[in-house]
Amino acid sequence: MKPRRPAATRGTPKPPPGPVAFGRKRRTLAERRYDDLSERDWMAQVVKTIRQLYGNRCLIYHSHDSRADEWSADSGFPDLVVLLMSRNGFRRRLLFIECKKEGKRATEEQMNWLMGLHESGLAHKGDPVEVYVWRPSDVDTMLEVLKEA
Question: Which positions ≥6 away from 127 have C-beta within 8 Å?
């Protein structure tokens, strides 16, 4: 049985739905489209895209499990470390990428790593270090970043 509204508010129209409902931001259709994509599948798609764009001009390292245990020094290391090389081989780009499932946030440990890498000044001959957190809805941004300069 549907609960009745208090007598004082009966007959008054409900406010139109706005951009915020129940304290949470409404998600766009693009964001909802990727709900079923797991973080692992998204990461596989990112790697596949990089390999399609760069072929043998890229090196990709995947950190399989960076949660702290007796063998690892620190948790939160980014999922992917990617070295991209230009066609002439003179320009290189080093990317640290954290892949997240749609609607999930990076943990505090992951953010510490990403900020530390971003601020580290690790650069070789002026080639910058790039740090990203990508979700499936960021696919257009990802493709723009991966375009060669």
Answer: 91, 92, 93, 94
pLDDT in tens, the chain (149 residues): 556 655 555 555 554 444 444 455 565 555 556 667 889 999 999 999 999 999 999 999 997 765 555 555 568 899 999 999 888 876 788 899 999 998 899 999 999 998 988 887 665 556 678 999 999 999 999 999 998 64
Output the CA angle 43-118-71, nearest 5 degrees: 60
As a CATH number, domain 37-146 is 3.40.1350.10
Residues 114, 53: Cα–Cα separation, whole Å: 24
Q: pTM here?
A: 0.70
Q: Domain coordinates of the chain in residue numbers?
A: 37-146
- Classify residue 75 as left (phi > 0), alpha (psi -120 to 50) or beta: beta
CA dist., res. 97 & res. 42, Å (int): 12
Alpha carbon distances (Å) from 101 to 10, 56, 137, 144: 42, 28, 9, 20
